[in-house]
Amino acid sequence: GRLRRVRAGMTLAGILGGRGRVDEAYEALEGASFAHLFTPEGCLPLTELGLNVVFTPLYRAMRRGARFVGLCARLGLADFWAHSDEWPDFAEDVAPFYDLKAEVGRVLALSARRSVWSPSHV
Question: Whole-prediction pTM value?
Fold first, then answer.
């Protein structure tokens, strides 16, 4: 069945993605808010794995699709990569599927245009 759109955990999305259920994983994350990560006291709930979970084998299938860059933008990772010019190791792994640097640029540009219209795009 369809997953309810609630604050889904990174762990759940990884498990779904690890089982090849990539669309369901992104559906679960669609309703999740990561805004709390950008506050001074921001952190993940104790029930969640760290953000490094997105770089584990659980997320491999998800990383292979350009939609993954949108998730990374929501987590603040894409902005970090673009501004620091420090790119993650998985960039080489996804090269047969998409150009990570180009996709980060596209997603950040789109996000910047959206922020003009909406103050909360995280």
Answer: 0.76
Closest by CA to 56, choosing from 86, 85, 90, 81, is: 90
Predicted confidence (pLDDT) at residue 103 exceeds the cutoff of 70: yes
pLDDT at 109 over 50: yes
Q: Which residues contact 102 (CB under 8 A, 6 or more apart)?
A: none
**For 6-20, what is each residue's pLDDT tens digit?**
345 777 888 898 899
Distance CA 30, CA 8 (A): 8
Paired tokens of 94: 């996804």
CA distances from 79 to 1, 18, 70 (A): 34, 26, 11
Which structure tokens are listed for 27?
Answer: 């559906």
